[in-house]
Specification:
Blueprint (H helix, E strand, L loop, with lengths): L1 H9 L5 E2 L1 H11 L5 H17 L5 E10 L21 E14 L3 H67 L5 H36 L8 E2 L15 H19 L7 E12 L10 E11 L4 H71 L4 H36 L2
Parallel strand pairs: 1-4
Antiparallel strand pairs: 2-3, 3-5, 5-6
Length: 413
């Protein structure tokens, strides 16, 4: 017992994969998944830039000019030059403006950035969701090929036994070399079919391995999914969230239209060094400052307000039309899949009976060959029919899983 226990510890556990784990691994391994982090970074940068609108806005201006004429008095005043201002003028000014209330523009921009981020994330959900269908097809196709290879092994074992029997019949004079050759032909055909199935399975395994980011080989055990008899019909596709996010973004843009014609208040300060300064009658450089409050109320946005709202309303109607079209097409797909599933279940109800009958026919054919009342070629046909009946059952089982998981994909349940 101790040796057996140690032996069990030494033998590595066989790798196992479920369909759900492959879906999760492929999603995490897919390069597009990194877009989520990039979208969030872009959102943070945009919000930070909007927030900086509350910081004081500082600008520096400088000017030097020469005028062909300046203001002069029409009469002479003792001690006062004829020209009150110098013709060459210089000015250096620093302006500082502090926003007090921008009519809600900044808050509106923040909401629009967040709404646009949600829309991009929802669109990315849609793009990544399409990956699930590809994984379903690969995983279940490998299961189907595994089952076909298993049936092929059983067929080759049956043909090997048949060849041994026919060689015995040949020794007894019941059969001849042509009968042995006929069995060999069927063995070669079965072996060629196995090679084709193995190559196809290996290609699917390599593709699945690339998707999930880990090796998948013939030794990897793919667990056959178990599904309930109830079929999902409620539609929970990520496309619906994407359409909702687009409508939310339009609602935010519509709300922001109000901020375009709201008054804006700010404080400002201006400091300068110029010749002339604020005292225009002194021809010398002077430092000065001006402080105050500013009100800005632009009514120009009212001219296009109605058209802007109609434009948003049109875009919203387009999105709702896309949603209705998507739901209509999805319901058609659900109906088609439900019909296919029902048809497969009816066919599967008769598979076992067909296998039982075909097995009886094959056994009877073997007995007739042994008695010399049936040719080996006819018996081989019955062996092939029995193998096809078994393969058909296996194919129906995997096809049922494929259709059920396709309906799960269509509804996202």
């Amino acid at each position: 017992w101790c040796y057996l226990f140690v032996f069990c510890l030494i033998i590595p556990a066989k790798a196992q994969l479920t369909l759900e784990s492959c879906q999760e691994k492929s999603r995490n391994n897919y390069p597009l998944i990194r877009q989520y982090a990039l979208i969030e970074k872009s959102r943070d940068y945009s919000l930070a830039n909007v927030q900086k609108g509350n910081l004081p806005q500082i600008s520096l201006q400088g000017k030097a000019s020469y005028q062909s004429d300046v203001t002069s008095l029409p009469f002479e005043v003792p001690g006062v030059p004829d020209e009150l201002l110098p013709r060459d003028q210089y000015q250096a000014v620093i302006n500082i403006q502090q926003n007090i209330w921008d009519g809600g523009n900044m808050q509106g921009r923040k909401k629009e950035v967040k709404a646009l981020t949600q829309e991009k994330q929802a669109e990315l959900d849609v793009n990544l969701y399409a990956l699930r269908e590809r994984i379903n097809q690969l995983f279940l196709s490998i299961l189907l090929l595994n089952e076909q290879l298993r049936q092929n092994d059983l067929l080759q074992e049956q043909l090997a036994r048949t060849r041994k029997n026919v060689e015995s019949y040949c020794s007894n004079g019941i059969a001849n070399q042509a009968d042995i050759d006929a069995v060999k032909v069927e063995q070669i055909r079965a072996n060629q079919e196995a090679i084709g199935l193995q190559n196809k399975r290996d290609a699917y395994m390599r593709m699945l391995s690339l998707f999930i980011g880990e090796p998948v080989t013939a030794e990897t055990e793919l667990q056959k999914p178990t599904v309930s008899s109830a079929l999902p019909v409620e539609i929970n596709r990520p496309e619906l969230n994407w359409y909702t996010a687009q409508e939310h973004r339009l609602s935010v843009q519509e709300q922001n239209l109000k901020t375009s014609f709201m008054p804006q208040f700010s404080l400002f300060a201006q400091g300068g060094y110029a010749n002339p300064g604020l005292d225009m009658l002194k021809d010398k450089f002077q430092a000065y400052y001006i402080v105050g409050a500013r009100l800005n109320w632009n009514f120009g946005a009212l001219y296009t307000l109605k058209n802007d709202r109609q434009k948003i309303h049109t875009e919203r109607e387009m999105i709702r039309n896309q949603t209705e079209t998507f739901l209509f097409n999805t319901r058609l797909q659900i109906t088609e899949q439900s019909s296919a599933i029902q048809a497969l279940r009816k066919q599967m109800a008769e598979d076992d009976e067909m296998i039982r009958l075909q097995t009886n026919i094959r056994q009877a054919a073997e007995a007739k060959v042994e008695n010399g009342t049936l040719s080996v070629t006819d018996m081989l046909q019955e062996i092939t029919k029995e193998s096809m009946a078994k393969q058909q059952k296996s194919v129906h089982e995997i096809q049922l899983l494929m259709n059920i998981y396709q309906q799960k994909y269509i509804t996202n349940n």
